[in-house]
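Reviewer 2 asked us to include a model.

Predict the structure of this chain.
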Amino acid sequence: MAEAAYLPGRQARAARMRMDTARILKRFFFCERALIVAQSGWLAAIADLDVKTLLPRMSWEDAMTADALRDRVFELRYPSRLMERGDDAPVIEVFEEAINAPSAEALILSLARVFKPALLAAYMDYLEVGDELADGPTLRFLRVAVDEKEEQVAELTAFADALLTAAPDKLAEAEAWTNALAARLDAVGGLTLTDPHPAAATIELPGRTLFQLAQRPARDPRFHLCRYYWPDVVDKTFPYGDGVMLQLRSAVSHINEAWAVETGGAILQAFADTLDWEFIYDAARWTYDESRHTRMGLDRLRSWGFEPEEIPLGTYIYDSAYGQDPVVRLGMLFYFETKNIGKKHARAAAFESYGDAVSQHDMEFDWADETIHAHYGSHWHGRLLEKLPWRIPELETLRQTCDALVKATVDSATDADREDIRRVAEAMIDKARRIGLKAAEDDT
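Predicted model (structure tokens):
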């Protein structure tokens, strides 16, 4: 009797089984997570406003990819919900060094030359050998991730060139840091579809500086730098105003949400390990939203004809939490969201009556974002209170603390501070009125 024969089953698409695939995607997830934390924690120390407000978009994109990776791992490993580094630790640890860059310039250069290209290449390799029948869901979101990573690499390369041109004294250090990271990644086998391995020898990272949050925010020198970004903050006799004054005040407030961008990044980094992935995912979106609001203000002011040096860029809200527990920064973000959200509809209606569609548009979308943020603040404060009851104050106590800290910072304003911001604001108002008169004349 002839031996049993089987139908052939050796096809290229069967190269990786379910658990093999889950292990690769888990590796990708942890590498994305490391970069989200690094990019977020560094925001306050980055001066260039374009980098400060576009890096959060990248973190949000990375978070969307990481979330899809994580969900897919859970699907493939069902019913297990474990996400452990395991044998992937050697490569994950290289990505986690990103946050310990010696400078913002070194961070951006390493993202542009090492980390983002590594993820891009790995995703492209995965797509090349992926099985559309068995693993179609993964292939779909990795195609999106490839498009995003290609754009990120181009943007980060341009940012690195601009930052290092402005600070040539940082070039040698940034190059050394980036080259050492590349060598360390190579030493563990790189980020590939095969398992990494421990490095044969330790490769030193020159300039490595254990990350610490910037307690004073860096500011773009192209703008008019100040502590208080509008006179009414420190001078109650200066009216909030309506008409042109309200249009300007709103736009200046929007661009000065740079403090919220920095704060969103700060709390993401601070509580990433305590609250884990769901918080990172929400905080990345929160920070990205604040970056869009900042760019809304810049876009409107530039469209009206204002140059950066005419636009005040302040620090006082971020400064108010100097040296405080990171929960105070969470409280600041939540406090200002809930404090101002009720005024958005009235201001949008006012802009509509002025025929200012873009200010109305931005205010309406800002309102929609901030309703989400109010939930984030309440939810994550509550989760922190559950986890760290000995450290986290009740919400009302936290609000009172934030109010007192901001008041103390405002009360510390000097006559020079008040005179400076009044001069800048009055110059903007005068220019805006001239622009408005000219536009009216052109219409007639």
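The radius of gyration is 25 Å. Residues 13-187 form a domain with the Ferritin fold (CATH 1.20.1260.10). We have added this to the supplementary material.
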